[in-house]
Specification:
The chain is α+β, with helices and mostly antiparallel strands. It has three helices and eight strands; from the N terminus they run βαβββαβαβββ. β3 and β4 form a beta hairpin.
Amino acid sequence: MTQKLNHIAVLVENIDDSLAFWQDALGLQVSQVEEVPAESAKVAFLSLGESKLELVQPLREETGLERALQKRGPGLHHICIEVPDIHAALERLQAHQVELINPEPRKRDDGTLYAFIHPKSTGGVLLELYQLP
């Protein structure tokens, strides 16, 4: 199974304020900004070679993102690995008793399938799997 790093996500309080560093000072180019209603989040993707940096801003209180922001503050949120077959990857993980946050993939508006793996199973890192359309 061929896998690659798709993106690294950074939890931020405000995307526009954060872009002052990532885009203006560091010089990364924004490739996409969108709201993800299923996650109650606004995201901005910045090009970083073959991978991306994702800024994630919670849009509502009482969400996992907002709780993480209140508990730990801004910073690294998750790492996303691109897989060719997310269903096969999830089956393999379940066979190895890996704790999944999403046992079934969710679907983004662009058709991307994604699922999160609980940090308890990864040594403390929230991991996201992506299958591009």
